[in-house]
Amino acid sequence: MTVRRSEIRVATRYAELERLCAFVAEGADAAGLSAQARDHVQLAVDEAATNVIQHGYGGEGDESFTVAWTAEPGRLTIVVTDQAPPFDPASIPDLPTPENVDDLSVGGYGLRFIRQVMDEVDYVRRDGVNRLTLVKKTKDEG
After folding, report:
1. What is the reported pTM?
2. What stretches of the chain show up as alpha helix (H) in DSSP?
3. Measuring CA to CA, which residue among 80, 114, 84 is closest to residue 9?
């Protein structure tokens, strides 16, 4: 299997999330990830894209951002880039999980979820561009 790459530009519209999830599912399939891993990737990218739209750009608008994937045997790397104001996920602490699900507050758990379902999460800002890198591996990959 060879390395495959693909990239998509997405408008800052929530309606684009479905198209984006289908796009990253293609990458997960190309990497040979399991159905569960593919679902995790889709949910993590959906959450990251929602954060870009909601928090980065302040809601839907005329801006756009880019999502690219690189599929290798047993490994999918996804890179989300945008030109919204800087945001460092490392500055956001994990919220504790309440004992009762009814006590969950709205918001603040998306980044925790992304960290839990992805094998690697990395953020850098360079030259006015935010770059969030997410990696998902098959279990038998180092």
Report:
1. 0.86
2. 17-31, 35-51, 110-117
3. 80
> Of 4, 90, 10, nearest to 45 (Cα)?
10
Please, which residues bridge with residue 134 across strands?
A: 78, 121
Cα–Cα nearest to 129, from 92, 79, 78: 79
In the CATH scheme, what architecture does the domain 4-137 have?
Answer: 2-Layer Sandwich (3.30)
> What pLDDT digit, counting tens, does each position of 2-15 carry?
899 999 999 999 99
pLDDT digits (tens, 9 = 90+) for 108-122: 567 878 988 999 999
As a whole number of Å, the end-to-end CA separation of the chain is 18
Percent of the chain topping pLDDT 70? 82
